[in-house]
Amino acid sequence: MQISNLLIPDLEEILKSDPAQAAELAEELHSSDLAELIDKLPDDLAVSMLGALGETEAAAALDAMEPGRRAELFQRLDRTKAARLADDMSPDERVDLVQSLPDEVGADLLARMPQDASREVRALLRYPENSAGGRMTTNFVALAPQLTVERAIEEVRRLAAEKETINEVYAVNPDGKLLGAVSLRDMVLARAGQPLSSVMDPEVVSVPPEMDQEDLARVFAHYNLLAVPVVDQGRQLLGIVTVDDVVTVLKEEQAEDIQKLGAVQPTEGGYFQTDFWTFVRKRAGWLIAIFMGEIMTASVLEHYEAARRAFTAIEVFVPLIISSGGNTGSQASSLVIRGLALGEVGVRDGARILWRELRMGLVLGSFLGIIGLMRALLVGHSGGGGMALAVGMALIACVTFGSVVGALLPLAIKALGFDPAVSSGPFIASLVDVAGIVIYLKIAIVILGAP
Amino acid sequence: MQISNLLIPDLEEILKSDPAQAAELAEELHSSDLAELIDKLPDDLAVSMLGALGETEAAAALDAMEPGRRAELFQRLDRTKAARLADDMSPDERVDLVQSLPDEVGADLLARMPQDASREVRALLRYPENSAGGRMTTNFVALAPQLTVERAIEEVRRLAAEKETINEVYAVNPDGKLLGAVSLRDMVLARAGQPLSSVMDPEVVSVPPEMDQEDLARVFAHYNLLAVPVVDQGRQLLGIVTVDDVVTVLKEEQAEDIQKLGAVQPTEGGYFQTDFWTFVRKRAGWLIAIFMGEIMTASVLEHYEAARRAFTAIEVFVPLIISSGGNTGSQASSLVIRGLALGEVGVRDGARILWRELRMGLVLGSFLGIIGLMRALLVGHSGGGGMALAVGMALIACVTFGSVVGALLPLAIKALGFDPAVSSGPFIASLVDVAGIVIYLKIAIVILGAP
After folding, report:
1. Phi/psi at B173 (5° precision)
2. DSSP-derived secondary structure for B124-168
3. Under an 8 A CB cutoff, do B188 and A156 touch?
4. What three-state secondary structure class fits B231?
5. CA-CA distance, A242 to A404, in Å (whole number)?
6. CA-based Rg of chain B, rounded to a whole angstrom?
7. Do B315 and A301 make contact, defined as CB atoms within 8 angstroms?
8. How many other C-beta atoms are found inside a 10 Å radius of the C-beta of residue A223?
9. Which of A223, A341, A359 sits opposite B255 (nearest CB)?
10. What value, to the nearest 5°, has the Cα angle with vertex A396 and ends A391 and A402?
11. Given this model, what pLDDT does residue A423 score?
């Protein structure tokens, strides 16, 4: 099923000597596997493979390819050939392609494509890439509601080859307004002579073009949809989004979340495909920003030098106390980010979440505080009962602080209109570290007496 | 489209006085919205709603409900009624239901269901919940390959009402071996008189029942599938998995990853649905485990007391240095977890990843090292050139260490057969904190001279 890695060196040899033979072998593959194969070839061989493949096969493979790599290869293709392949691609992938090419190359490609195809791309380019409009295809079947089911099936058969899906067709009025959806299933099950209007679902779930793709995925999951029509405010049918695009969106969003939660800017390509220095850039930004925040821990510790000199045991517990606050903060933020992602909680729930995390922090902080107090009291030679009490109380305070800040920060970021997943563990930990040192030292000074 | 929250109090009033009227209102909703509505009602009213609804509507709503809550409600239903509703549910949801009930209640439910339904549930219960077998339904259409397309469509029409999907039907030989798949689309497009065998796809992608659901989602995404047949080693057709289940899997996995990466044990229910003390348990475990590891930071600092007394500026930079190592470790681990999730990297790539993260750590560490050195040299009164050099070098060493450990740990966890997402930022940070303090203090002692 999946093409073996072992085949690649052999195939490269064949490609070098006889591209036509290599293409013949490759055309036996599923287009998704062919895309994966081309993705693994060096640039020059990938281009020669695309040239040798039949145009239908090449376009199908390009439809299934990872967008970043596809854009790279397109720039190495002969431009006339590139325009012909783009014309054979599916409309939604074609739009993605033009979006990921440098402006000049994209414009040239549009100029070389047949006029109706380029007009369609321009229309779809108006929508943001990550919206329902950016994910939709205009390649659907729309029919008049008064057609009988038999006539409708005939139409579907006539149009099937050029449409992306016929599993779902749409009944529209002469102005293009959506009246209802009819699944191929409903048509097959209908009695002879019934008009579409009597089998269609007039209350079909539809979405506006500006809907964010995460919300779109939620609609698909909630209603178990295979396709959803995209309509404007006047219920004009603009296009449809199919479930395979939503599966892709979900895979991408999952991968993006993982990166953001690790304080890495999202990348397009894979771990090894992405250039070393690109990763340096994607990682250095957040890392340096957080580092600049963490520098304040040094300043705070310098500020309290007198206390540290008076009680040398104080500093022994600093990493333990601040990391506990940061870890609880990570937990709270991950729960809130998850809740926001699933639509279970919203910015409106701020007060309820604050109250819950406040209590949660007090409970969890008490657990850690008791263990910390025992450690300070019983092990080492670190300062006696007063010190142990200070450690225990600081743990309760810092864990509670971490829990509340960790929970509220993603809400605040969401309220400002950004992706809450950027309030990653490292980011929250740096906030809690600085505050945690101040909280701990203040408590210690009160209990042990000012130096 | 979505039922307004405002409606709920009104509906509760109607439910209390006249359940039949409330059910009548509710039956106008999409079954997914009805499920959401029931989910929001208090237990007793939810049960009375399920009792008042028509059995088909109630079963459809139960199909769409969150499994944890559904299991709770089932235990409050009259047992005969519960068995009738379970019998009307779709087979894969029915299996999930029995799995999530206490053993005794599940067994009782099975005993009250018609024999063929309970036999089917028992057969499906053999497969782990998170496998292709656990996600599949046995409710598909299987036909003989020699049927003409017209006869096949007649069969599909006859069977449609009781089958989960007819978008894809399967050609099997008399022993139940899978010969190929035919989409409803292909049947509609076929010429009259063609046998199924000439329109079916004999190389249809299939999966084994033990395939993990994450890999299953990857297969759906790779091949853009709407359904996939599940076959055993002898290609016996056991069931099919449909794309709506995969969308659910992806939503669940995404939510689970977010929790694990925040060092929280995954929960079934939502943020507010989950009981406060359940969350305490889910969070306290990891938090205390990490805390016990972090306690070593205190021991290490106590061990180096002489050095800290000789150079009081040393401790000022401890939080800064160790957090930098932890943050780089979080980044590296998130990239590797992402790569593993997408299937881009594998355990076999350990050496390449090690080499890459080693270089990455040196580069990123140098950036932070230079900033740290400048800070130590220019601001505050913290120890002069030797100290600054020690801070800079320790940053390079700790960031490199963090990067390498962060990248290799998820691989090691994966190699041991566990989910790499448990190597969360907090977990890695605790490892790096202890090692980081040792690295830093050793470097400082070498540069500043042993006390």
Report:
1. -85, 175
2. HHTS-TTBHHHH-BS---EE-TTSBHHHHHHHHHHHGGGSS--SE
3. yes
4. strand
5. 40
6. 30
7. yes
8. 18
9. A341
10. 115
11. 66
Q: Which two tokens stand for residue A241?
A: 């989004």
Which candidate from A224, A261, A376 shows the least CB-CB separation from B334? A261
Q: Which two tokens stand for residue B264?
A: 């929280």
Q: Are B318 and B398 in contact (CB under 8 A)?
A: no
Chain B residues in contact with A191 (beta carbon < 8 A): none
Please answer yes or no on whether A64 and B224 come within 8 Å at the CB atom.
yes
Ranges of each domain in chain B: 7-126, 142-245, 276-448
Look up the CATH number of domain B276-448.
1.10.357.20
Tell me the C-alpha distance between A65 and A60, whole Å: 9
Measured between beta carbons, the chain B residues lying within 8 angstroms of A366 are none
Tens of pLDDT, residue by residue over A51-100, are: 889 888 899 999 888 888 898 898 998 888 888 999 888 888 888 898 88
**Which sign does the torsion angle of CA A292, A298, A299, A301 carry?**
positive
CA atoms within 13 A on the CB side of B40: 17
Give the model confidence (pLDDT) of A248-280 as tens digits.
888 877 777 777 777 677 776 677 777 888 888
CA within 13 Å, CB half, A222: 22
A111 min Cα distance to partner chain B (Å): 31
DSSP characters over A204-263? ---B-TT-BHHHHHHHHHHHT-SEEEEE-TT-BEEEEEEHHHHHHHHHHHHHHHHHHHTT
Q: Do A153 and B188 touch (CB under 8 A)?
A: yes
CATH architecture of A7-126: Alpha Horseshoe (1.25)
pLDDT attached to residue A380? 62
Contacts of B326 in chain A (CB under 8 A): 426, 429
Q: Does domain B142-245 have CATH number 3.10.580.10?
A: yes
Strand partners, A380: none
| Partners of residue A251 in chain B, C-beta under 8 Å | 217-218, 221, 250, 342
In this structure, the number of other CB atoms found within 10 A of the CB of residue B228 comes to 25
Q: Is A338 within 8 Å of B272 when comparing Cβ atoms?
A: no
Find the closest chain B residue to A379 by CA distance: B299
Give tens-digit pLDDT for A395-434. 999 999 999 999 999 999 888 888 787 767 788 888 899 9
Element (DSSP H or E) covering residue B239: strand B237-242
- With beta carbons under 8 A apart, name residues in chain A contacting B155: none
Task: Provide mean pLDDT across the span A301-321.
Answer: 86
Give the alpha-carbon dihedral of A90, A91, A97, A99, to 10 degrees.
Answer: -170
B184 with A189: Cβ contact below 8 A: no
Per-residue pLDDT tens for A205-242? 999 999 988 889 889 888 888 899 999 999 999 999 99
| Amino acid at the residue A31 | S
pLDDT of residue B5: 47
In the sheet with A178-183, reading across from the earlier edge strand, the strands are A142-143, A168-172, A178-183
A312:B317 CB<8 A = no
Region for residue B143 given its phi and psi (left: phi exceeds 0; alpha: psi -120 to 50; beta: otherwise): beta
Structure tokens that stand for A134 in this block = 């950016």
pLDDT recorded at residue A382: 56
> Chain A residue with minimal CA distance to B368?
A288
Measured N-to-C along each axis, helices A43-52 and A19-26 cross at an angle, to the nearest 10 degrees, of 80
Interface touch B338/A255, C-beta < 8 Å: yes
Distance (Å) from the C-alpha of residue A5 to the closest C-alpha of chain B?
A: 13
Task: Please report residues of B whose CB lies closer than 8 A to that of A261.
Answer: 258, 261-262, 334, 425
Residues of chain B with pLDDT under 50: 1-6
pLDDT at B380: 62
Decide if B443 contacts B397 (C-beta within 8 A): yes
CATH class of A142-252: alpha beta
State residue A312's pLDDT score. Answer: 78
Locate B52 and state its tokens: 């008042």
